[in-house]
Amino acid sequence: MIAIIDYGMGNLRSVQKAFERIGAEVVVTADRRAIESASALVLPGVGAFGDAMANLREAGLMESIRRAIEEGKPLLGICLGMQLLFEVSEEMGLHQGLGVFQGRVRRFEVNLKVPHMGWNQIHITQPDPLLVGVADGSYVYFVHSYY
To answer: How far is CA 2 from the centre of its chain?
Structure first.
């Protein structure tokens, strides 16, 4: 079963419906036991970084997420969900993230149009399991204001 982590924000139901459409067994949950017993996790997006981290902290979910990752469970971070995995974000001040990945989430420079939206060609610089089946030079859709 795939656990879609409910931390009080995010596009929970659209993510749930997408997984159900492809036949996956999913549960939307904020229960630590359900998260820890799931075979895979989804950390959905939409929201503000600082508020999202506060919600994860208050719900006691930070350690459950870290432990699942340490155990090798796959985790899909969507938009804000991916950003939360980094050490720090500059969104509306400095906020500590989950620290799974080293690095800082930064806003694009003021002279660039944000949010960055549209189809862009990607170039694969090194093999990665995430990109199996994705051809070098493929076009993917982006919508983001941070990198």
So the answer is: 14
**Dist. CA 123–CA 37, nearest whole Å:** 36
**Topology (CATH level 3) of domain 2-105:** Rossmann fold (3.40.50)
Cα four-point dihedral sign 36, 38, 39, 43: negative
Where do the structural domains in the chain lie, given as residue ranges?
2-105, 107-147
Identify the three-state secondary structure at position 140.
strand
Check: CB of residue 86 under 8 Å from CB of residue 101.
Answer: yes
pLDDT tens for 33-44 read: 999 999 999 999
Structure confidence by residue, pLDDT tens digits, 134-146 = 999 999 998 888 8
Model-level pTM? Answer: 0.82
Are 47 and 10 within 8 A, CB to CB? yes
Structure letter (DSSP) for residue 124:
-
CA–CA separation, 82 and 101 (whole Å): 10
